[in-house]
Design brief:
The protein is 21% helix and 22% strand. It is of the alpha/beta class and 334 residues long. It has one domain: Metallo-beta-lactamase, Chain A. A 9-stranded mixed sheet has the order 6-5-4-3-2-1-14-15-16, covered by helices on one side. Helix 6 runs parallel beside helix 7. The longest helix has 14 residues. Bound molecules: zinc ion. Zinc ion binds next to helix 3.
Amino acid sequence: MVCLLASAIMLAASAANLDIYWIDVEGGGATLLVTPARETILIDSGENKAHHAARMHDAVRSAGLNRIDHHIVTHWHADHYGGTYALSKLLPIRNYYAGTPFPDRVDDDPQFSVLMPLFKKANRGKPRILAPGDVIPLRQVSGYPEVRVRVIGGNRRQIAARSGGPSNLACGAPVVAPRFDDGENAMSLVLMIEYGKFRFLNAGDVTWHIEERLACPADLIGKVDLFQVTHHGLDRSNNPHLIRSIQPLVAVVNNGPQKGSEPNTMRTLLGAKEPAVVWALYANLKTGPDLNPPAQRIANPAGTPGGRGLRASVQPGGTFTVQIGDDGHKEEYR
Ligand SMILES: [Zn+2]
């Protein structure tokens, strides 16, 4: 009887958390949120590979669930919506959202003509189109802080700045964009996920000049606790003005064995006045230890088969842990 009571209390405690899973889709995006009301929100779906779908399915099942309540596609690139069809064969996906309607073509995505018909087949209709200022309707649990998924930007637009607000001191001298990219990446949704005071930014693959609009001259975002490094850590994204402005306590790099965590992005994160604590799915073997997180914060060290994800668990008060897989190295942040 005593044991049963203790385990019931433990279950109630963990169910109060917002859990965030970064699923290893080898350089794509697939971020699963499980709310205290036990709703699942999948932001992007990796590539059209059976093992990507299986990993997303496993993450949902490890939370004791078997459905996706809300599936948000940040933009129409194969590493962000390619896994949706295969996943829809494994579990039901109830609501679809995107930042722009189904495009006729995407110039910089050679897989588009194969994948878009599959996505439409999985969706059986049209995704709801999200605009800056929109909020995904979520179930809440009374007695716990509110969970919110808010749209900060999408389709090259952003929420409005507060009128008469101060200009952002993090902007300073203009930064020179490494490359102007106005393609599909620039259209990405920019999402703020909040649980009470806790704040997590996922900006998909949005690129440098759009990030500039999010931070300068007015700061549209504010500080965040947790940051999913934009565009897998590529230097075409991760404008220092934005990163210095959001000042993330913890940054997660959803990179792949051969993709992402590029040097300028890592320098910005690790060289800031208050450097972020960085975790990554993989090490960048070209840049050396100075521009990688320490080994204990890398989910899939070189020479291992891959497939391990990262997981954050956010308590109602905002304290959160980040952990490798279900049982790997774990740290707590307040
Ligand atoms: Zn991507």
